[in-house]
Amino acid sequence: MSRVLVLNAGSATLKFGLYEEAACELRGVVERIGEAPALRLFSGDLDTGGFLPAESGHAAVAEALLDWLGTHLDLGGLVGVGHRVVHGGTRLAEPVRLDADRLAYLERLEPLAPLHQPQSLAIIRDLLSRHPRLPQVACFDTAFHRTQPRIRQLFALPRHLADEGVLRYGFHGLSYAHVARQLPIVVGEAAARGRVVVAHLGQGCSLCALENGQSVATSMGFTALDGMMMGSRCGRLDPGVVLYLQQQRGMSVAEVERMLYHDSGLLGVSGVSADMRDLLASPSPSAEEAVALFIDRLLGEIGALVALLGGLDALVFTGGIGEHATEIRARTLHAMEWLGIRLDPPANDRHALRIDAGRGPAVAVIPTDEEGEMARGTLACLGPG
Q1: CA within 20 to 30 Å of 139's CA: 179, 241, 275, 340, which one?
Q2: pLDDT > 70 fraction of the chain, expressed in percent and rounded
Q3: CA 169 to CA 223: how far, in whole Å?
Q4: pLDDT at residue 46 greater than cutoff 80
Q5: How far is CA 228 from CA 207, 224, 265, 346, in A?
Q6: Contact 175/200 with Cβ under 8 angstroms?
Q7: Can you tell me the distance from the alpha carbon of 213 to that of 194, in angstroms, rounded to the nearest whole number?
Q8: Contact 265, 237 (CB under 8 A)
């Protein structure tokens, strides 16, 4: 049997999973990286007390995690490590085993995904150095969207920029790939092959239109700033705002970048929190305004994709907000009754897989599983071992 470890690096977290073939043995997350890293398990009853990173950065945390796993489990059958790498650019559209040339290419893409790409590559460089005979495989969030028509990859900019790679790439592809895999089971083969909109809603948010289970349009573009409003990211923005902030307000590039990635979105509008749970529980009028704006933007993004699809056979919610925020789903779906959607409130309250009332477009809540998708991709890349 072939065993793989998968590592999913966030801006301050490191999710992981240990898989034997397609079966998950252990899953967990290291939180508060950069401050005081702490290990939490989602499955299993192992003692986490021996987890002691030498430093607080992502690479040191990943090395400490390997050491901790090695003291509790037999890793002798480990055939490789799979990594979530957010941006694969134009060259990489499927899981690949990493070497110096591919790593150098991915490093050039770091400015396009500054919250995630540097952390993933720091881990990869460290593990390649310390464990040179252990294959490292990159699984890309952009890969799923390479099926989009060229017209939906283009910006209305001078043509030479598109030739140089300034294109709409799209992200959250590992999540969408998992949802596409589950769709026939949840909504049936006919709807799964039809016109589907998937809303991945969490700290990062995007939407994807599917036909025949493939991406044909998505809300995110060149970077993970575009499209839907997010926890601390602005989403779709008039580029004139950036020009105004720099030209008239005297803000530097670094200051604007900080604002757009870290101080905007739910956090910026509410002034309370980037966490939807906090906002839904807050009595603050600005918190409710942030929630209302989030739903308004979500309706706009769904509507745009439905227009491109020419109709809707199924709508799917996934991600932390999509899977758990009953009120967000209910308020969104009530505003979509014109499309024939009918909500089943008790099903919505219990986060059922199907929350529609059985007529009109299907509405589903499908928990995402990026780590499971990474395990499949890593094993397929490495082949029989």
Answers
A1: 275
A2: 99
A3: 8
A4: yes
A5: 8, 10, 9, 28
A6: yes
A7: 8
A8: no
State the pLDDT confidence band at 49, using cuts at 50, 70 and 90: confident
Asked if residue 385 has pLDDT above 60, the reply is no
Strand partners, 359: none
| DSSP 3-state percent helix, strand, coil across the chain (nearest 5) | 45, 20, 40
Token pair, residue 15, equals: 């999710």
Mean pLDDT for all residues in the chain: 94
352-368 pLDDT, tens digit each: 999 999 989 999 999 99
Question: CB neighbours (10 Å) of residue 52?
Answer: 10
pLDDT score for 77? 81
Sheet order of strands, 14-20 included: 38-41, 23-31, 14-20, 3-9, 78-85, 136-140, 96-97
Assigned token pair, 239? 């580029």
Helix (H) or strand (E) holding 363: strand 362-365
Backbone angle region of 311, left / alpha / beta, with phi > 0 → left and psi within -120 to 50 → alpha: left
Per-residue pLDDT at 47: 85
Q: How confident is the model at residue 1 (pLDDT cuts 50, 70, 90)?
A: low
Could you give the percent of the chain with pLDDT greater than 90?
85
Question: Cβ neighbours of residue 345 under 8 Å, at least 6 residues apart?
Answer: 330
Q: Residue 157: phi, psi to the nearest 5?
A: -125, 165
- Contact indicator for 206, 265 with CB cutoff of 8 Å: no
Taking a C-beta distance cutoff of 8 angstroms, is the pair 33, 39 a contact? no
CB of 304 closer than 8 Å to CB of 228 = no
3-state secondary structure 311-328: CCCEEEEEHHHHHHCHHH
93-147 pLDDT per residue, tens: 999 999 999 999 999 999 988 888 999 999 999 999 988 999 999 999 999 999 9
Residue 33 is encoded by which pair of tokens? 């990286």
- Cα–Cα distance between 219 and 199 in angstroms, integer? 10
Query: What is the rounded distance in angstroms from the CA atom of residue 267 to the CA atom of residue 298?
Result: 17
Whether pLDDT at 83 is above 60:
yes
CB atoms within 10 A of CB 309: 18
| Residue among 297, 296, 278 nearest 287 (CA) | 278
Active site residues: 141
| Residue from 229, 299, 295, 219 nearest 264 by CA | 229
